[in-house]
Amino acid sequence: MLAEAPRVIGGGPLVSFVTPVYNGARYIGECIESVLAQEYANWEYVILDNHSDDGSAAIIEGYARREPRIRVHRNGSVLPIMTNWNAALALISPASRYCKVVHADDRLFPRCTRAMVERAERYPSAGLIGAYSLWGNRVVGDGLTPDETCVPGPEMARRALLGQVYPFISPSALLIRADLVRGEGGFYPGAALHADVAACYEALRAHDFGFVPEVLSFIRRHDDSVTATEAAPLERIRLSNMALLTTYGPLFLTPGEYRARFGEVWRRYLCFLARGALEGRPAAFWAFHRQGVQALGLSLNRMGLLRAVLRELTHRPVASVKRLWHSRPGQGTRHDRKPEVTLGTR
User: Fold this and answer.
1) Residue 248: in which H helix or E strand, if any?
2) Distance, CA of 60 to CA of 261 (rounded, Å)
3) For residue range 112-158, what is the model confidence (pLDDT) as tens digits?
4) Partner of 332 at 20 to 30 A CA spacing, among 56, 99, 258, 300?
5) 15-221 maps to which CATH number?
6) Are 257 and 160 in contact (CB under 8 A)?
């Protein structure tokens, strides 16, 4: 069913909602309903179906027939994730002032667009507007005080790199000035899964960060998400954090801050790899991380890894013995289960 007509706020700048979807039939209806329930009325909704084969197209078309503000596009074949996300953003109206991504497995609360647009209109220097989000059953996006409604972009990037605040939990949690997504080459740089975060750091080089101290979006945690199916099996996020720090740390941190933060993150990464050695991770895991470290211009040598393993054995003997036991042939580990690849946002 379509959502009941919400109380809407007339007028205001045009907002383009954008949903890239691949095999998102399980949740896409909830996503669309949350857009229809917004208290803000002046919007269009662009949905790009990445050649789904699970019934997503029929669900989307059903909504589009009843709501003229929904525009549906479909790829002739499955595109890589970031290529598809950029293709979706390229479809927004040239008249749009703001872009609001909402992934097919997420949803927005009714006040979301209204509150974010009000903040953006108050602070024209802000390229990104964020807020608290409900991530599963946790509130995330904290770290700013309620009165920090607009933070200089470089300062926001600095705090994020230092781990003091993390407003980039999902593109669904942000409102973006439309002129930023219209740039040459696409908004999301490169094909890596952390390109959405890299895009935010790029935006913060010249634009401020607006903040609404309210919970305005719901970010779903489930086994079919990009994080679960693409990032988790090889623990890509660990390497992504290193890549983001080495790329943007020198831009936003002082030399002293960067050296200290790099040392901290690198030590954590080595400890993570040490746990992987104790767990008996497969060859694909090691090939991914070895190649990724080399691409960053860093060195992953056996001696450094051995020292990290010894630290794990010394400081966490019980946990280390458990990892060694569960990595024995026939015992199996939690990494043996290959998840079904059914991405809701590809």
Assistant:
1) helix 236-252
2) 45
3) 999 999 999 999 999 999 999 999 899 999 899 999 999 999 999 99
4) 300
5) 3.90.550.10
6) no
